[in-house]
UniProtKB/TrEMBL annotation:
Superkingdom per UniProt: Bacteria
Protein name: Chromosome partitioning protein ParA
Database matches in PANTHER family: P-LOOP CONTAINING NUCLEOSIDE TRIPHOSPHATE HYDROLASE, PARA FAMILY PROTEIN CT_582
CDD domains: ParAB_family (cd02042)
Length: 266
């Protein structure tokens, strides 16, 4: 039986600093550690996911920009990382102009979809593609959602956490109704969670009451190892395997895989 196409997940939240990039890198690494083949697409002009996986800023000839606007095949762009099974399409500041250049392109919201479908992708034999979105609901993020099976939303456990989420949900619904009927919410993962902080706990209760099953059981704790790892160009799972951050992202990967095998079986 032919292998299924890779599942494509956008990691999105228009707020900056909520843990999108940290989640993309470490969920990707956790899935790869389970023997899956995973490609990350760095879609943020800041290129933090690329830096966090050890790709130097001066060493990014072929980037996600070429994937979108130069029709370069993904296979020519993907770079190895220190983690077996985990590859990345790097990004740099070229992408910041892409948002504007896309406006005048006929298939402006389908460019990533076009780039991630077809025989070129099949030969890569990937299980997952994770897209690290920029902190905005711009054309780049819309492109990611049009190409995706689902959207994974990291939500920082802080006051007003739910604000802004409704706008993201609205975009997801719009794209489902217009350009990508299969798009669903993968779920919401609470990040930078601090057990000792009562406000964090209140926010958790609030978010769970509102979003119910959409919220993952796994919460990502605030853990200094998670913020240190990128400066070594490594996911936390490799930098400090026994850290709380590492344990949490492995647990998130397990939860996601369980949901997917249930969906596949249904
Ligand atoms: P985004 O991609 O949404 O802008 P990042 O993943 O880059 O957010 O996270 C913002 C900052 O917070 C980074 O410096 C990152 O290292 C740090 N960070 C993210 N998640 C955690 C966490 N669970 N514990 C501690 N620091 C974190
Ligand atoms: Mg980021």
């Amino acid at each position: 039986m032919a292998k299924k196409p890779p599942r494509i997940i956008s990691v999105a939240n228009q707020k900056g600093g909520v843990g999108k990039t940290t989640t993309t890198i470490n969920l990707g690494a956790a899935l790869a550690a389970k023997g899956l083949k995973v490609a990350l697409i760095d879609l943020d002009p800041q290129g933090n996911a690329s830096t966090g996986l050890g790709i130097d800023h001066n060493d990014r000839d072929k980037t996600t920009y070429d994937l979108l606007l130069n029709e370069m095949p993904l296979a020519d762009i993907l770079r190895k990382t220190a983690v077996p099974g985990l590859v990345i399409s790097p990004a740099n500041s070229d992408l910041s102009s892409a948002d504007l250049e896309l406006v005048s392109t006929a298939r402006r919201i389908f460019l990533i979809k076009d780039a991630l479908t077809g025989p070129d992708i099949d030969v890569l034999d990937l299980d997952y593609i994770l897209i690290d979105c920029p902190p905005s609901l711009n054309l780049l993020t819309l492109n990611a959602m049009v190409a995706s099976d689902s959207v994974l939303v990291p939500l920082q456990a802080e006051f007003f956490a739910l604000e802004g989420l409704s706008q993201l949900m609205l975009s997801v619904r719009e794209i489902r109704e217009t350009a990508n009927s299969k798009l669903r919410l993968e779920g919401v993962v609470l990040t930078m969670y601090d057990r000792r902080n009562n406000l964090c706990h209140q926010v958790e209760l609030d978010v769970r009451e509102n979003l119910r099953d959409l919220v993952f059981k796994t919460m990502i704790p605030r853990n200094v190892r998670l913020s240190e790892a990128p400066s070594y160009g490594l996911p936390v799972i490799n930098y400090d395997p026994s850290s709380l951050g590492s344990v949490a992202y492995k647990s998130l990967a397990t939860e996601i895989l369980a949901r997917h095998s249930k969906q596949d079986g249904a």
